[in-house]
Structure formats: C-alpha cells, structure tokens
Design a protein that fits this description.
The protein is an alpha+beta fold and 302 residues long. The chain contains five helices and 22 strands. The strands form four sheets. Strands 1, 2, 3, 4, 5, 6, 7, 8, 14, 15, 19, 20, 21 and 22 form a 14-stranded mixed β-sheet that branches. Strands 10-13-12 form a three-stranded mixed β-sheet. It has a three-stranded mixed β-sheet with strand order 17-16-18, covered by helices on one side. It is flat.
Amino acid sequence: MQLYLSGVDIAAMVGINNAVLIDNAGGLLDSTEVAFSDTQNLWSSWAPQIDDVMRIVANGFDTGDCFIDQIGQENGLYVLRGLSVPSGAKAKKTRSWEKVTLLQLAADVAANLGFTLAPYDVPNPTYSWADQISKTDLRFLQERCMLEGVAVKVNGRKLILYSESGMERQSISRVIRKQDFWQPPNYSRKRQGTYAGVTVSYGAISGGYSAPGRGGEMLTKEIYVTSIGEAQRFAKGLLRSVNKNEHYITGMIELDLSLAGGSMVQVQEIGTADGLYMVDQVEHQLTNKITALRLRRRLEGY
C-alpha cells in the first residue's frame, strides 16, 4: 500500500493501523480515511492542513487525489480523512444561464473546481434558462443531471458524468454467490416512495413517462420546462431517480479491489435477490481485508 501526503509516499515511515476507501457510483463524494502511528516522529514536520492532498494506492485501486477534510488524534493514532473535492466546493451560489447546454453547465462546474470534465455516453440538451439558487455547484449539477438520467461522480480531479442506463448495460465485473458473503447478505425491496410513472408540468405544458408494465401511484412535479418533449424527458429521469433503489443488497465479501462504484455484478444463489446489480457504494477496508457492498438492482426499460 502507498499512502501519499502532499505527493510524498509516507507508508514506510508510519505504522498504518486502519485504512478505509469508500467509492460511490455517484451523488455522494468518494472518501478516504487512514489511521496510523507516527513511528519516526515526523508528524510535526509534515503539519498537514485542511485541503492538503492525500492519496492511497493499493493493488491497482487508486483513490486519486483526495483533499483532507478532517485531521485528528485518537487513541495515540493520527487520523486523516479526505474527500474527492476541496472545501471550497461547499460554497453555495446563486446564478443563471440562458441558452446553455448540459455539458456547458458541467464544464462551468468543473472549471470552478479546477478539475477536468469527463463525460461518457451523456446527452447534451439545450436549456432556454437554468437557475442555480443558493446551492453548491455540485448539488445544482447533480439535480440537473438527474432529470436527464445522468450520474455525477468526482474522482481523481475529474468531474465524471455518465448515463446510468448506459452504465447498467456494461459487462459484469464478477459473479457474487451466496458463499462469497461473509455473513448472509441483507436484501430489501421497498415500494414506498416508488412510482408507476411521473408527470412533469409547468403552466400549460405537461408531459409524462410510465414504467413499462408497472401499475400503481403516479408522481406529479412542477418543474420549469419549455416543451412537451422536455417535460417527458425530465419525467423519465425523475422516475429512474425515485425507483432505482427499490431493490438493494448489502453485505460483506473478501477484499476485492477490482470493484468500484458503478461496477456491474451478477448475484446468484441467494433466491429472490438474484439478478444484475450496480455497485452503488463499495467500502474497501484494507487492513481488515473486507469489501462492504451496497448493490442496487438494474432498472429495466428506463
């Protein structure tokens, strides 16, 4: 394992007690936490500060640059926690755009972070008007992308945008069977908060989208739109957002650093829960040699 602090690998200079890497498919920030003893009494000379850069590389898994968000001392150990964005990303802003595309909005956010924009299989609609009202750049972009069925992930100084339905069609990274879990996994299916369809309206404009072959409650939202087509597109994105966590599995397996947020896996031999799942969140506990997973089932039809 390599532990970089401000570009210097300090792993050989400290006694690493615990290292945890959390990688998300999107929406939440990736994070890194490490606890170590200062065996050579170098902490004072390092003097890490908030927003200094830390990074962990282990057997092919690379957290990319993380920005120190917390510094502490616990039980004789030094603890550093890093997030994939610097503290300045928490600032709320109010601003507007006229005749702007989705990728132009994303490029603006990436530039403000000092990051590179990396879009994959992403639509690029044009909006007649877009408002960011007292929101962080990332929250504003995530909400806009959600309407288009697009996920936002920040990793390694890159602002990554990808089509969720496109990502769900990728090849599976591995098959996970019942015996692979350290303990029986938890499976849950919830209908509360999920819908058969969504209708988006604004003034006299209205458009909707319904999940194929599904009945039940409909959700209605008022969102600024300028055409029926835009309302229908937003309705589809909203429906995916509210329904995508209907089926999920949580459990722990032996450390597998090949899995990352957004990976697709096939679950077998569990029963009702069997199927294709996206890794919504993976927590690699390096020192305990455990990978904790939260998996959500692939949505069919939208």
